[in-house]
Amino acid sequence: MIKLYHAPLTRSVRILWLLEELGIPYEVEDVEFEPTRDTFFQQKTPFGKLPTLEDDEVVICESGAVLEYLIDRYGEGRFAPEPGSPERAAYLQWIHFAESTAFAPLGVLAWLGVYRGEGGRYTELLADARSRALQALAFVDRALGERDYLVGDTFTGADVMMGFTLAAARRLGVLDESLPRLGRYLDRLMARPALKRALERKPGEGSSRS
Ligand SMILES: N[C@@H](CCC(=O)N[C@@H](CS)C(=O)NCC(=O)O)C(=O)O
User: Fold this and answer.
1) 79 C-alpha to center of ligand 1: Å?
2) 99 lines ligand 1 (CB under 6 A)
């Protein structure tokens, strides 16, 4: 049985959302996210990080890796282009861009500005992070153009990865009306029933499919 260690508003939302899209049985271990000041890898999961997933003998963290693992193993051809195809290259690019390039400056804004509440002390650093985040979002916006999804015409795991990043950008005030097309893309993702189920789930509810 698949078990997801999950806390609302953390990157484990990506995996809960994906599990709902896949429609496979899973259970959730609710974890209370504890932001600490100096120590990391201390969350109550096998690796101390959220998300972490167990699937029989497999124990894996890193949301992008977990997502690729689940789609490869349970996707049955859905949510990812064929390995080796040009679309696969785009799919991999956006999975990694969403977490590595776009989320990195947002993480600085969230960590220093929100969790540590030290915006006043790091004004220049936060302004730089905001500018870098905005430029990353503008890059996504240009690539998306008028299409509905990042890769071809189909919803894929890349949209799951980017959806969480864009939702964080909106919460942090980085994704605003200056990028209306990207805002509409996020709205389209937010309207997906699987994401709604993931966001509406309350701690202790178990899984809708276990
Ligand atoms: N790049 C990792 C980031 C994982 C991560 O840092 N998750 C946060 C919650 S969103 C966490 O566990 N923080 C506690 C810590 O860093 O020790 C991923 O995409 O899964």
Assistant:
1) 24
2) yes
